[in-house]
Design brief:
By secondary structure, the protein is an alpha/beta fold. It has 2 domains: 286 residues, Aldehyde Dehydrogenase, Chain A, domain 1, CATH 3.40.605.10; 191 residues, Aldehyde Dehydrogenase, Chain A, domain 2, CATH 3.40.309. Helix content is 40%, strand content 22%. The strands form 6 sheets. It has a 7-stranded mixed sheet, sandwiched between helices. A 6-stranded mixed sheet has the order 10-9-8-11-12-22, with helices on both faces. The protein has a 3-stranded mixed sheet with strand order 1-5-4, with no helix packed on it. β13, α10 and β14 form a beta-alpha-beta unit. The longest helix has 23 residues. It is globular.
Length: 497
Amino acid sequence: MDEMAHVSRTRVDEHYLKSDVGMHARLFIDGTWVEATGDKHSDIYDPLSGQIIGRLVHASKADLAAAVAASRTGFGAWRRRSAFNRSKIIRAAADLLRERAPQIAALMTREQGKPLREAAMEVELSADLLDWFAEEGRRAYGRLIPSRAPGITQVALREPMGPVAAFIPPNFPVSQAIRKIGPALAAGCSIVMKLAEETPATTSALADIFHDAGVPPGVLNFVYGDLTEVSEYLIAHPVIRGVSFTGPIVTGKGIAALAGIHMKRCTMELGGHAPAIVFADAEIASAAKLLAFAKYRNSGQMCASPTRFLIQSDIYDLFKERFIAEVNRIRVGSGNRAETTMGPLVSAERLQTVQDLIADAVERGATVELGGQRIGERGHFLAPTVLSNVTSEMRIMNEDPFGPVALLSVFDTIDEVIEESNRLPCGLASYVFTRSDVTASKLSSELETGMISINHLGLGLPETPYGGIKDSGYGSEGGSEAIDNYLVTKFVSRAIE
């Protein structure tokens, strides 16, 4: 294992050094790196400077066909491995991920922009996710069903679904990939994954890790390309039996519709516009500190990020003062600097979208309490922003800004805040701060959301469910539920002669 680890670390370092210039045409298909043959490419930008640092060649249809063919062969071999053996290999991948964490975190900071400490935390969590999924795969039990007549056995078997097509965004390039790769491999499935074009070096390191851990050729395949073209090809292909997508709601609905046309099971982890509700009896200082961390983590580029801050009128001014004080402690800059606590947004497009939403809100009467402006002329930096006097007519109160913007508004009664929290069609996460058991119980029951965290930040651990309801999707990418997405049930009834 040590010798293989050294070889792969060298590959990671070399790829990192090459990432400054030129074309990148590496696809991971059938257990090896191959050259992409597509006639299109994506520019790779440095979020720190905004400059193009490379170009990524897209997969052609021939490349996609090769990936699907490899996944079919890989599935045939992988499903025959015992759950115990698959678990050992996935655990080995987790160990390698921890060992190579410094290099991978550095790549992530370079490509995605988040502070190095946050990148390291993401890699560590991803290794924990692999450990969890490895053990869940060993316990994907079927069941024996008592029969109505003697001499009959009835068994419900749980079997791997088959090759899966998966799609991930760039905001958490390692953990989002692992939340799909981990349960798929643990269940015995193979996977063809379209990675985010913004972070190719970061996710390329994952292919080397799984290869070195002993995953057979064809089980894991990585491609790049236009989302519409890749999804239309993969989802329609008869070999592909399942779909997993993480990304914006509008895009996800298109993917889900396509999966429905072709009768493919799918898991959708889509956007949110999470309410953060603070009642007058809450511990105000703690709520302000925790919510400031959660809001501006990864520059607000997190589906479950708290966004609509709903503050009870009695403590609105006090909370706003404490919250702004916490936000003022944020240090924006290069993710490689030790003092940096917030980096740039991942792209110029994301920066412009957030700026447009802020401008619309201000034009409609919102007050800029803090930030609101781009920082400097180079890179994708936006100052941590706090808006007050926001109303439901503003775009930013209806469209998740997916950026470092907190929206402060006031409520008086619990029924009023429940109505506002449930107003939008999305429902991924909610945050509540209160000392009242009665209030906490009522909100736990009546908030239309997939996840609720009360008086702390408790979402996203490997052992807990992670997913939304309504327009925020369906299925879970955490907890014991995650592996269910990749298993099908087969009922066998047998008469014993």
